[in-house]
Structure formats: structure tokens, C-alpha cells
Design brief:
This protein has eleven helices and twelve strands. The chain is of the alpha/beta class. The protein folds into two domains: about 200 residues, Rossmann fold (3-Layer(aba) Sandwich), CATH 3.40.50; about 100 residues, Glutaredoxin (3-Layer(aba) Sandwich). The strands form two sheets. Strands 3-2-1-4-5-7-6 form a seven-stranded mixed sheet, with helices on both faces. Strand 1, helix 3 and strand 2 form a beta-alpha-beta unit. Helix 1 crosses helix 4. It is globular, with a radius of gyration of 21 Å.
């Protein structure tokens, strides 16, 4: 579906007090700095016009709600509603959901909602689906260990895909139904979105699943960095930065990943460590002449000071890191 452009929407969002800005300064302190309290945060990705989240925020003043939406022409509708009828426990973000790990601290979110997400039907676009393994692993960066993910859709192909990707990512499938409105347990307290109202009125069955993270040996210490966050996180960082340029299909990248993870944990607080997928951010890879991966670039003061191409043992990479420090 083609989105209709709303003239002036970007400018209006830039001036709205209901859009959260200065995201890097809030990492680890979202409830405190955005809402002025220590209440749990529930996050909707692809919040659209905000009807679903607004209703939840009205029902549950004890919870802080954040709605993330990439398209300003859609988000402006949610902001207009909140401007007319303000709620203290609801705010919005205008960004790509995949960038959130750069701004959210570990365990900062207690629940994630995915409602009628873009199905991205072509197989080559599967990794863009919000229930893909790629996205599920990104949620692990900021979803609490006991936190939940709730997903609703009318698209049965996307739902089937999600039922497979959840366990494939090491997550646990808590519950699911292919007919939400006929399920007395999962439909209890259900808040319908605009799409849900439209589809269900036509007799379309709504699918829903609830998932949570499985038991992990240890949380990843390296955060994702993208084209949108590269300058702020890598070039303007106060500490030295290590960026691991990789790709999901790259065998040597998978070999070096645990080495990078170990160093990220060992030198936490002394150096920031990020992973950049060259398929998702080709312009950054091109800018730094990345011809082979894995490539590990060390930044200091916004400049590349060391570069390692290919796999090397942990002690060798640690020696390079010590030189940078």
C-alpha cells in the first residue's frame, strides 16, 4: 500500500513535545528521562496512527507506553490525537525499529507489541519482517529476560513464518491462536487496532501469538549499528569504538563473532563495540573501503586508527585493542 504524503508532517513532528528526541542520552534511563518515573515500559513497533497504544495508555496509567513508527505521514495522526487529548504515559518515536538497540539499554522494555506488521511477501525480503530471526535477536538487546512479545496479524503466511522463526531464534512460543476473537483466553482484554476492526468486520480471522526469550548462555555485548546511527555512535563517541563489519552469510564472520563478544564484555566501559551488517548498510561499507569481511575497524576521535581484515585469534585481536586504548 502506498502511503500518502502529508505536507509538513516532518516539521510538525520535529516541534512536537510528544516525540522523544536526544535518544542516545536516554539509554538506560528511558522511564526516568521521558516519563519522570520508574514504571515499566511497553513498546509498540509500527504504531501507525496510534489508536491501539492510546487505548492501552488510557486503560493502564501505571505503565509507560512508547510507539515507534518510521513514517512521519502516519505518525503525525497519532501525535495529533495526543496533542488534542494528552496522556502523561504515552510518547512516540520516529525511527526504524532496527535502530532501537543503539538507544535502549538491556532490559528496559517489558513488553513489545507487533500489530499487523508489513508481511514483506517476497522471500528475498524475509529479513525485513518484524518477526524474523534478525529482528527477534535485536529485541533481545532491550527486552527484559522475562518480557513478552505479542504479535497480531490477518496474514496467514506471515503467521506461519512467525511460528517457525520464533523457535528458530531460540525463543519460546507461549501461546498462539489462528482465531483470536473466538479464543476466550487470548481475547480477554484485547484492544483492537484499526486494521483489526476493518478485517474482522469482513469476517477475516485474526491470528495472535505470544513469545518470550528462551534461556541464553549469555547476552550479546555488541550492539547493532546502522547507517542512521553510525555518525552518532561511532564518529562522535567519547570512548574508542570497534565496529565489526559482517554479513549473515559470511562463515569467517561467524568465527570472529565470539571473539569480538568476549572482548566487548572484558573491556566493557573502556570501548564501545558494534556490529554493522554490510548488506543493510552498504554505503558505510563503501565509505570505508570494505572489500572483504569480516573487517574490524577501530575508531578514535571519529577517525579509523586500526583495521583488521579476516579472522584472527582472540589474543591477536586483544593486542590490537590494547594498542588503541
Amino acid at each position: 500500500m502506498r502511503l500518502r504524503n502529508v505536507p509538513g508532517s516532518r516539521e510538525a513532528l520535529a516541534e512536537s513535545p510528544y516525540i522523544v528526541r536526544d535518544l542516545l542520552t536516554r539509554r538506560g534511563r528511558w522511564s526516568e528521562t521521558v516519563f519522570g518515573n520508574s514504571r515499566p515500559i511497553h513498546l509498540e513497533l509500527g504504531t501507525g496512527k496510534g489508536k491501539f497504544l492510546y487505548a492501552l495508555a488510557q486503560q493502564h496509567p501505571e505503565i509507560n507506553y512508547l510507539g515507534a513508527e518510521l513514517y512521519s505521514s502516519v505518525l503525525i495522526r497519532a501525535v495529533d490525537r495526543l496533542t488534542e487529548e494528552p496522556l502523561p504515559n504515552l510518547r512516540f518515536l520516529c525511527l526504524d525499529a532496527f535502530d532501537l538497540p543503539a538507544y535502549m539499554g538491556p532490559g528496559e522494555v517489558q513488553k513489545i507489541y507487533l500489530n499487523f506488521s508489513d508481511p514483506w511477501p517476497k522471500e528475498r525480503h524475509a529479513k525485513r519482517r518484524l518477526t524474523s530471526e534478525r529482528f527477534l535477536h535485536s529485541y533481545e538487546k532491550y527486552l527484559a529476560p522475562d518480557g513478552l512479545l505479542e504479535f497480531k496479524t490477518d496474514n496467514t503466511d506471515l503467521f506461519d513464518f512467525s511460528l517457525e522463526s520464533v523457535p528458530a531464534a531460540g525463543w519460546e512460543l507461549v501461546a498462539f491462536t489462528r482465531d483470536l476473537h473466538a479464543d476466550p483466553v487470548l481475547s480477554a482484554g484485547n484492544v483492537m487496532t484499526e486494521y483489526e476492526e476493518k478485517f474482522s468486520s469482513r469476517g477475516v480471522k485474526i491470528c495472535k501469538l505470544i513469545a518470550r526469550q528462551g534461556q541464553k548462555k549469555g547476552a550479546s555485548m555488541a550492539n547493532i549499528i546502522t547507517t542512521e546511527t553510525f555518525e552518532a555512535l561511532a564518529l562522535k563517541a567519547e570512548k574508542p569504538v570497534l565496529v565489526d563489519f559482517y554479513a549473515d552469510w559470511c562463515g569467517p564472520c561467524k568465527m570472529v563473532a565470539p571473539v569480538v563478544e568476549e572482548l566487548a564484555g572484558k573491556y566493557a566501559g573502556q570501548i564501545e563495540v558494534y556490529k554493522l551488517n554490510v548488506d543493510d548498510s552498504p554505503e558505510i561499507a563503501q565509505r570505508y573501503g570494505i572489500m572483504s569481511i569480516p573487517s574490524l575497524l577501530f575508531f578514535k576521535g571519529g577517525e579509523v586508527v586500526k583495521k583488521q581484515v579476516g579472522f584472527v585469534p582472540g589474543p591477536v585481536l586483544e593486542g590490537i585493542l590494547k594498542e588503541v586504548l
